[in-house]
Design goal:
Radius of gyration: 28 Å
Number of helices: 17
Structural class: alpha/beta
Shape: flat
């Protein structure tokens, strides 16, 4: 079944990767020394260059394996695979150059090496994209499927079914659900209850499943040990999808206390001092550079506001930030001057009469947010983080939206993961918090850079900014 297919597929994948490493090496050599007309460097012939392949190909393939490029990819996106490919090639490149340095191989062209790893990433990326698309097509047509049996009807079961049915390209086929509470033939979408949990052993004997997904309701966890033992006795791969995923984060932080696993309810990388220092340093440098770059556009906007409506150019509004502390957040004024009490208690709506003509433009393009660079320098905000909210709405949402207050464990940001995914302005608060929590739990410098980069293309123009 799938396990045998996976082994064969991996062997072919490794062979193909070896071929593409060789092809990239040849293309890089031709680019460097022939096609681009660059002056030949060093005294090595092609035969001397090619001897490095004896070591380079197997070492690269080993690093690919160590980086997880041959692990099953069902449920993983193309971006994830490309990131692993990039990481593997960076490690290979740095390692290869370190070895050349140690052995004093000074006649190897460094530009050739840059061409080689660049070509390799491109060729391998195209190959993996085509393989992924081919597999998705095959799976959508009912082939190369992973056969799954679900044990336990719960919120976790429904969430699991939702994701499987929404992504047929993953290639999962759910045979049914075993549950003690729900009647046989009870259906959730396309999946039916086909028996009870006591029949699990019989199903495992009669059928060949690639995977058992245990999705017990939290009230039934006393059955978990027995079910896992039955599954492992049959040798089938078993997954456990907890019914408390609304409590435990997607990537839980687990400690080992002398063999006792301890799950931390919330992992916040920015609680680490070194991470906080790095992020704050980037904020200070980034905000200072941005203020210099945008100084002229900001001056033009300030003059336009001053000439077209009465009132101050800069508008300050109380928001809630790190550790629930209130601070004044700065924006270019985009509305007519109004009473503070009225402004603080109302959302801006579509075609809001309070928004000025210039204000409508700068809100839609997010230019009104640029003065928050001053907030970043002051330490009230970060370049990237959850967007801060007004105190009145914080009090409202913390009662209505689970885990809402967790966002205040980090500095609020000018842009964030929720914003670049379309959740800003008059959009779902619950979805916004989901994205904010994902950011908080998975923070890294790379994620911040990715968000800043995507903000250029997705974050400035905001259809929900009225």
């Amino acid at each position: 079944m799938i396990k045998d297919n996976q082994k064969a597929f991996n062997r072919l994948h490794i062979a193909a990767d070896g071929f593409f490493i060789l092809l990239a090496y040849l293309i890089a050599y031709m680019l460097r020394f022939y096609w681009l007309g660059l002056e030949k460097a060093g005294n090595y012939t092609f035969e001397q260059y090619s001897r490095f392949l004896v070591v380079l190909i197997p070492v690269c393939l080993l690093i690919y394996w160590m980086c997880g490029l041959y692990a099953p990819k069902r449920g993983k996106g193309m971006q994830w695979e490309l990131w692993l490919l990039l990481k593997a090639n960076i490690i290979s490149g740095v390692g290869f150059m370190a070895v050349l340095y140690l052995f004093k191989e000074i006649d190897i062209s460094r530009s050739f090496l840059a061409f080689f790893f660049g070509c390799n990433i491109i060729l391998e990326g195209i190959f993996r994209f085509l393989v992924r698309r081919s597999l998705e097509h095959i799976r959508r047509n009912g082939k190369n499927l992973k056969h799954v049996l679900i044990v336990g009807y719960s919120r976790a079961a429904e969430a699991y079914v939702d994701r499987i049915l929404a992504n047929p390209q993953w290639g999962y086929y759910i045979h049914g659900i075993l549950d003690d509470k729900m009647a046989v033939e009870t259906r959730y979408k396309k999946v039916s209850v086909i028996g009870t949990m006591s029949e699990l052993s019989d199903y495992l004997k009669k059928n060949e499943y690639d995977e058992i997904a245990i999705t017990l309701a939290i009230q039934e966890y006393e059955k978990l040990e027995k079910l896992v033992m039955e599954c492992e006795y049959s040798g089938v791969h078993t997954k456990f999808i907890p019914d408390y995923n609304h409590i435990v984060p997607t990537v839980p932080y687990i400690e080992d206390l002398e063999g006792l696993p301890v799950i931390n309810i919330r992992k916040v990388p920015l609680s680490n001092l070194v991470n906080r220092i790095i992020k704050r340093s980037i904020d200070i440098v980034g905000a200072a550079v941005c203020l210099l770059l945008f100084s002229v556009p900001m001056l033009v906007v300030a003059l336009a506001i001053k000439l077209t409506s009465k009132g101050p150019v800069i508008f300050s509004q109380v928001r809630v930030g790190l550790h629930n502390r209130e601070f004044k957040m700065y924006k270019f004024r985009s509305m007519v001057v109004q009473e503070t009490t009225k402004e603080a208690g109302e959302w801006t709506t579509k075609n809001d009469s309070r928004v000025t003509g210039i204000g409508r433009i700068i809100r839609r393009t997010s230019i009104d947010e640029l003065p928050q660079l001053i907030n970043v320098l002051k330490g009230d905000m970060s370049l990237v983080g959850p967007r801060p909210e007004r105190p009145k709405f914080v009090e409202k949402f913390k009662e209505e939206v689970p885990r809402y207050m967790i966002k205040h464990q980090v500095r609020p940001g000018m842009t964030g993961w929720a914003q670049i995914n379309g959740y800003r302005g008059d959009t779902s608060i619950r979805k916004r918090i989901e994205y904010d929590l994902h950011y908080i739990e998975n923070w890294s410098i790379g994620l911040d850079i990715k968000i800043l980069f995507l903000t250029i293309f997705k974050g400035f123009i905001n259809k929900n900014a009225y």
